[in-house]
Amino acid sequence: MWIVIDDIVYDVTDFAKRHPGGQAPLRNLSGKSCSWQFHKIHSRHTLESLGAELRVGRTSDVPNPYKEPKPTLIQQL
Ligand code: HEM
């Protein structure tokens, strides 16, 4: 099971079983790019420590099927 974050492919097949966020989010996003979802939840240090063992290689143009929600400004302060 592979996921893509910032154009880097990670093999999370074994890691999914010990992922603190559970297997479901990784399964749902497998084969997809999920950069904004990842960065919303994790600190940038997460991949510094865990990324090296999961990293497979680089890719490009893998679509993220979900658009990042942006807040609507209703009043300028
Ligand atoms: C290589 C990929 C990933 C790694 C190495 C990883 C690692 C981690 C780690 C270490 C934590 C504990 C909190 C922290 O230290 O930041 C965590 C929590 C979590 N992760 Fe991931 N994660 C990955 C991908 C994802 C993806 C793609 C999602 C889905 C958006 C996700 C959703 C979550 C959730 C929901 C939590 C629980 C947050 C909480 O309960 O506070 N993770 N992950």
TrEMBL record:
It comes from the Eukaryota. Transmembrane segments: none annotated. The keyword Metal-binding applies. GO terms for cellular component: membrane. It holds the Pfam family Cyt-b5. Keywords: Heme, Iron, Metal-binding. InterPro entries: Cyt_B5-like_heme/steroid-bd, Cyt_B5-like_heme/steroid_sf, Cytochrome_b5. Residues 58-77 are annotated as: Disordered. One of its GO terms (molecular function) is metal ion binding. Residues 1-60 form the Cytochrome b5 heme-binding domain. Belongs to the cytochrome b5 family. This is Cytochrome b5 heme-binding domain-containing protein. It comes from Aspergillus cristatus.
